[in-house]
């Protein structure tokens, strides 16, 4: 049974907003895929982005097809599933498999060390799902090329090992079909971050061994409740909570997943990319445990949410919630809730106008039409791109720009997230020092997630960017750039766009990555 228990500082204000949503039939109109809910400016995009509302039924035919394919692959000894995808194409399968205790290798990086390590892992038993909604995601295309080359060099036919998931008619669909790959075509009227229960979420998860039929049933069982114009609708209640809090400038959403399944990372993309635009939105802050700084203690501008907790936590702001329920149901609950919140905040929850800007800047750098600036100075094997005459001064100056009433720090790390996973703990270090919300994102993964909020959301972020020299670069077959130059261009391009938006950015490039990470941790303490 899905459920939301919540607290609010003003029960009457919350009840008035909830009753207004009920009177306006917001939930049932989402169910009916009414594109007028978010205003005339959003109607065009919303009209082609609402097919997610009934995915538990429309995706059901995929279950048998994916199950049959898995049986064939396992019979051939192919029991290691790799997913090449970014953002909405990778976050949901990662959470689904983690929740089910099923092994799935997610390659959502253009870092050469991470790509090389993934390819070296059980190649002889690997089946690779190449997943891209647009069919033009450069990271995913580069990963596909790397696997094609590796399979060919190992004497393996890539056609027997690579499976494609994309929208019908995309460049990837056309190329993969012509080449002879097995292609799953997803519903084109579902946006990437809403695609958990489409082929994008189900194909890699089902091939890895998840009971995807049960996942769909979990969501389907709760549809009647989640689309009801009722005060008992948990999605309506959560969405109204987010919207009312936002109207009071309580716009940080601190999430603690007590189940330890990682659903916070999926919620992070859904909330940040859906709401972060027009200079407003909700910033998700995912913390690793309930007593982590930013959760305990919290800040006056934060909503606290636990997944599978013991009831709503105590928040300084007075806004908090605890969510219960199976994963499929929770995914649908959050999707409805974010759509409801978007209406109250006054944004279109289905577009992402600022995501393309960083991609464009990276392409310009790769093509040579742009240039990466030289570092301002170097110290102890770290190149510093930003102001200051010393490393300590540069970090102190950046942190000094965090608004202590309403700002946040975003730490963005363009390194191998598997090899250096422990460095994510620096989030707690910085949060304790600043007593302000701190987010942590692995690049370029976050560019397809929170990157929209960083540039389009509330303009009070300060950004620390960490890059590093790889152990060894890796060429990309058929491309005139390498993985190393690609990820450098992505980092530099995003930094340039952030600066163009008036956001403070400090970039630290590490020549000795382990030593450099230790130095950064000390500087942030």
TrEMBL record:
UniProt similarity note: Belongs to the GPI family.
Biological process terms in GO annotation: gluconeogenesis; glucose 6-phosphate metabolic process; glycolytic process
MF annotations from Gene Ontology: carbohydrate derivative binding; glucose-6-phosphate isomerase activity; monosaccharide binding
Gene Ontology CC: one annotated term: cytosol
Protein EC: 5.3.1.9
Pfam families: PGI
Alphabetized UniProt keyword annotations: Gluconeogenesis, Glycolysis, Isomerase
Name by which UniProt lists this protein: Glucose-6-phosphate isomerase
Catalytic reaction(s) noted: alpha-D-glucose 6-phosphate = beta-D-fructose 6-phosphate
Pathway involvement of the protein, from the record: Carbohydrate degradation; glycolysis; D-glyceraldehyde 3-phosphate and glycerone phosphate from D-glucose: step 2/4
Lineage summary: Bacteria, Bacillati, Actinomycetota, Actinomycetes, Propionibacteriales
Protein's organism: Aeromicrobium yanjiei
